[in-house]
Specification:
alpha+beta, seven-stranded antiparallel β-sheet
Length: 237
């Protein structure tokens, strides 16, 4: 009984290890093409050999730098992005990876590469491509500058990374906030500056009323004084 249980446990472990072994299998070839009109000056670049992770070959190192296994089989991994970042990307290249499958054939997986993108090389793998009895997870991947240098060493043009997008400059002190120009007669939210009340209809008359009253009182007093002075002269006649 114990032997049967042990044999079943070993079989289950072997079956569980099969997909992992298939996913760990590296590419056997890669072709780099594209780069805009006319493609590469010397034509597509072909790499062949052992692409097993950690083997140290040009093929394996290129796959590692491009994040191939992160975009092949993983939903979340270091370097994976949920959406493409902003900024210029420069020319796009295509790497077509060849993976031997268990049926004696080969699966072709295509990956787009922008080696000179602002902020570092970018790659994108379309989800759902058949590979090794499964399909690619796909997605965007931010690679290190090691990918650009490797591609240049393989024959891509020697170009520097594009400039990163400039950060938006803070508004200068005293600048009117957004919306202030559209409604100049209204104070901006949170501002201590109030509208000039002298420009409001009718406010000039209200403010001038006390002064007008004082002037009227002085005029009335002057008229009374003149009348009193004129009475004695009239009585003497």
């Amino acid at each position: 009984m114990q032997r049967r249980v042990l044999a079943m446990l070993v079989l289950a472990l072997l079956l569980a290890a099969v997909p992992t072994a298939a996913q760990a299998k590296g590419a056997s070839a890669a072709t780099i093409s594209g780069g805009g009109p006319g493609g590469l000056p010397g034509g597509p670049i072909d790499l062949n050999g052992d692409g097993e992770p950690g083997s140290g070959t040009d093929l394996a190192n290129l796959a590692d730098s491009a994040g191939v296994f992160a975009t092949l089989f993983q939903d979340a991994a270091a370097g994976k992005l949920t959406s493409p970042p902003p900024g210029d990307r420069g020319p796009r290249y295509t790497i077509t990876w060849t993976f031997p499958n268990g049926a004696g054939g080969a699966d072709k997986v295509r990956q787009s590469v922008w080696p000179y993108a602002a902020g570092g090389p970018l790659t994108f793998m379309t989800p759902g491509q058949p590979v090794l009895d499964t399909t690619t997870r796909g997605g965007w991947y931010r690679a290190s500058d090691d990918l650009r240098q490797r591609l240049i060493a393989l024959g891509l043009p020697r170009r520097q990374p594009l400039a990163a997008p400039a950060a938006s400059a803070p508004a200068p002190a005293g600048a009117a906030p957004a919306g202030a120009v559209d409604n100049p007669g209204r104070a901006a939210p949170g501002s201590a500056t109030l509208p000039h009340r002298g420009t409001e209809p009718g406010t000039g008359l209200v403010q001038a009323a006390p002064a007008v009253g004082i002037v009227l009182v002085l005029v009335a007093a002057l008229v009374l004084a003149l009348r009193r002075r004129s009475r004695p002269g009239a009585a003497a006649r």
